[in-house]
Write a structure and sequence with these properties.
The chain has about 575 residues and is of the alpha+beta class. The protein is about 55% helix and about 15% strand. The relative contact order is 0.05.
């Protein structure tokens, strides 16, 4: 509603828009301006021109106008045929005609009162053509009636003299009709937009309610922060977590006040290490484990964050907190169990292998033949395999790797591992090849690096059931050394690659193929590499083989030996068979 419309409503004492009124109310309002104007004219004429009020035609016009106004006020127009109210503006023309003729020669401009019924007719939605016709014919009758009523002859000049008035009222009617139609179309467009906005608002409200229900139904704390790091939204689970990780006695806290700790459960995380602090730097992360809570009530939280951006850049973040305390405790209990069982198995296995070695020596010394030598050999081989598995279980359960880093001959490392793997490769129809620069030196623990390379080679051979080629490569770059093992075997899917370095994980294809293993080799390999400060990466696809690449940081210069000379590369020894890998 425009300011003019608001002022008009206030002047007329209405508390609604004109189009919201009933038909009877609109009729009374439309009649009002003419009545008010004529009333003001009568007051003025009574003061300045009283003789006009004494003329019978003028009085008849006033009486007719009063009757029309009473009719407009008392008749229930809402119950009648809709166009029936047009009788009122048509009678208004008659009343104006009487007033015009009653004041003829004394008052000028009474004819202009025709504008009120013209506007009324033109603004109505009954018939635009009918309104325009009446707006011309009725005023024309008013101005021509004196011409025909006088004793003077009717001439073209006398008829043309007052024709301007009816033409003006016709123009007014056409203008008002056009304005009304334009306003109707705008009002329809606004109504359509209002409906669209209401529908969008209702849909947005419904989605917001649905989102709240979904967020409150999940067992994950969800926190949404704005560009300045302040909380914008929290679900119910997040509010519950807040109560547990907030210092005692504090009701309103910032993230720096919350009790977040590192892996040792005692060292408080710095502002840059905390989830919101990392997210505010634009960092997206997944499944970061932290500890939170008061002493005696610590819980493990897995945190993930996704960044919100708009055309201006950073616009906040969504951070999820999942309580994984039970899972962490279960994993620790599993590792403790595995470690205990492995320790209990290792002692009798060592004794069994020792006695089997003695039995094997006695068989060789006595030259015994038959099934017993073969049985002793099978028992010894399986015992050694079981001892290797127990060692892997102990290494996986401990999670710690002791290192004795030194310069290692890359050439000797690769040759030794290839010699160890060659019997298994020959049995599987796999060709082993190597690509490396002569004199290549790698800095690391020689035994551990040999274990890594032996594990990767064993893995490549095992998962090349149809034969093929396994290639070992090694090269260096400034500050880095690389080891790579490539096969042409089974390969694996992206889903399997995400879980490949998890303890005890074995791919579905491996389980279906019946390939033996415990799923520990790659987890141990990754621990060894990370203990060296390096990384391991994988490129693989089903049916296209796999390529494992190990990257190890190297010192700027080889460390000197105790006597001050440069240390020579260490010899490499391979102890035992390769661990089974999945």
């Amino acid at each position: 509603m425009s300011r003019l419309g608001t002022r008009t409503r206030t002047f007329l004492g209405m508390d609604k828009d004109f189009h919201d009124l009933t038909l009877a109310q609109r009729v009374r309002v439309s009649q009002g301006p003419l009545v008010i104007t004529v009333s003001l004219l009568c007051i003025i004429y009574a003061t300045l021109l009283p003789e006009i009020l004494a003329r019978p035609q003028f009085q008849a016009g006033l009486v007719l106008l009063v009757l029309i106004t009473v009719t407009a006020a008392v008749v229930p127009w809402d119950r009648l045929w809709y166009p029936s109210y047009w009788i009122l503006p048509i009678l208004d023309f008659a009343a104006i005609g009487l007033l015009y003729h009653g004041g003829f020669g004394l008052a000028m401009g009474i004819y202009l009162l025709c504008v009120f019924p013209v506007f009324w007719l033109a603004w109505s939605r009954v018939s635009a053509a009918g309104a325009q016709l009446l707006s011309f014919i009725c005023p024309l009758i008013i101005v021509w009636l004196p011409v025909f009523a006088s004793a003077e002859p009717v001439t073209g000049q006398r008829l043309a003299a007052p024709i301007l008035g009816p033409l003006v009222t016709l123009a007014v009617a056409i203008t008002v009709t056009v304005i009304r139609q334009d306003m109707d179309s705008r009002q329809a467009a606004l109504a359509c937009k209002d409906q669209l906005l209401e529908d969008a608002l209702a849909q947005s409200t419904e989605r917001s309610q649905l989102l709240d229900v979904v967020l409150n139904a999940i067992d994950v704390g969800v926190l949404v922060v704005g560009p300045n790091g302040s909380a914008v939204h929290k679900n119910e689970r997040m509010r519950m977590l807040d109560e547990r990780i907030r210092p005692a006695g504090m009701k309103h806290t910032q993230e720096q006040d919350l009790l977040f700790f590192g892996a040792d459960r005692t060292t408080a995380l710095t502002a840059a290490e905390r989830p919101i602090g990392r997210a505010m730097k634009g960092e997206a992360f997944q499944d970061v484990l932290i500890w939170a809570g008061r002493p005696g009530d610590l819980m493990a939280l897995s945190c993930s964050a996704r960044i919100l951006r708009n055309e201006h850049g950073f616009n906040g973040a969504v951070i999820a907190f999942s309580d994984v305390t039970a899972l962490t405790d279960a994993l620790r209990a599993r590792d403790d169990f595995v470690s205990s069982v492995s320790h209990e198995l290792r002692t009798p296995l060592t004794s069994i292998i020792g006695y089997l070695d003695l039995a094997q020596e006695e068989v060789e010394d006595t030259g015994l033949t038959g099934t017993i030598p073969h049985a002793v050999e099978v028992a010894q081989r399986n015992s050694e395999r079981l001892l290797s598995l127990v060692s892997d279980l102990l290494a996986a359960a401990s999670g710690s790797v002791a290192l004795d880093p030194r310069p290692v001959s890359g050439e000797e490392l690769i040759k030794a591992c290839l010699r160890s793997a060659s019997p298994r490769a020959a049995a599987g129809g796999v060709l082993l090849t190597a690509e490396y620069a002569p004199g290549l030196t790698v800095h690391g623990d020689p035994g551990r690096l040999a274990q890594v390379l032996d594990n990767l080679l064993s893995n490549a051979i095992k998962y090349s059931p149809d034969g093929g080629t396994v290639t070992v490569r090694s090269w260096t770059e400034p500050g880095l050394a690389f080891l790579e093992v490539q096969d042409c075997g089974m390969g694996m899917s992206e889903e399997d690659q995400r879980e490949l370095f998890t303890k005890f994980f074995r791919t579905g294809a491996v389980r279906r193929a019946g390939i033996p293993g415990a799923g520990l080799g790659l987890a141990i390999t990754k621990n060894i590499i990370e203990a060296h400060g390096g990384t391991i990466s994988l490129v693989s696809a089903p049916g296209e083989g796999s390529t494992f690449t190990v990257c190890l940081p190297q010192p700027a210069q080889p460390p000197p030996s105790a006597d001050g000379t440069e240390a020579a590369p260490a010899d490499v020894e391979i102890a035992g068979a390769a661990s089974s890998l999945e």
